[in-house]
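Hi everyone,

Forwarding the result from last night's run.
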Amino acid sequence: MSKKNIRTVKNTLKRLWALTWLLILGSCFSYAQQINTMEKLKTSGYAPVNGLKMYYEIYGSGITPLVLIHGGGSTIETTFGNMLPLLSGYGKLITLELQAHGRTNNRDAPESFEQDADDVATLLKYLKIDKANFFGFSNGGTTTLQIAIRHPEIVNKIVVASGAYKRDGFIPGFFDGFQNATLDNMPEPLKVAFLKVTPDKGSLQVMFDKDVSRMKTFKDMADDDLRSIKAPALLMAADHDVTTPEHALKMSHLIPNAQLVILPGTHGSFIGAAEVGNAKGSKLPEVTAVLVEEFLIK
């Protein structure tokens, strides 16, 4: 290759690198703009819900809102911090924090997926919302199943990400980790996020203990419970999740109008959950947002 051609190739590569960095910087700037815009338009408050003061946030506007339900041990930010800007084009988004989580206080009663479902339904009644779509992750996914079973009248469509309805749906050895669990075992990003919004280590311990107790006593749902779900459902899981792809497939066969998506990654990676680590470098949450929006609007 001649020196002239070599210089041409080098100059072309420089231009390509410059264009690549401009695109990356433009994408980051656009993402930051979305976050700033959403924060400006956010409304938040506390609702009287079955003995709780339940914290909630509302973004955007629309006829049928999308209600996002976080995972165990999480806050709104740790589960959906990366997803919220990506879903901003959908319309009205409602996020919340369940019993003892984040900014919502505790009641003198154990946690249960059934009670969480009833609490979400009561919150929507308080907000004067007759019908909604629901997107739940992990424990929030199991709660979403319970909402569809116990409160079908308020459900339009559901998205269940990494949820489970039976103990055998989790990977082998999953429940062993709860037998001697202590607060030290809780992922550090989740502890930091909780204390940021509720700076009380006693409340953090209460939330941790209740979450552990619920998982140790996890109760199976009946197959007929899932067969009773009439709402269209999108089931999502990662191929190396804490729930097995086979379990997600089984649920997709039981729910009459269900679709299934298995994505590469680990628990929380396809929504950019905080405990995953460097979630901002992954494009998987963008893929998830597109799949969710397409499912909801069609």
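The longest strand covers residues 258-266.

Cheers,
N.
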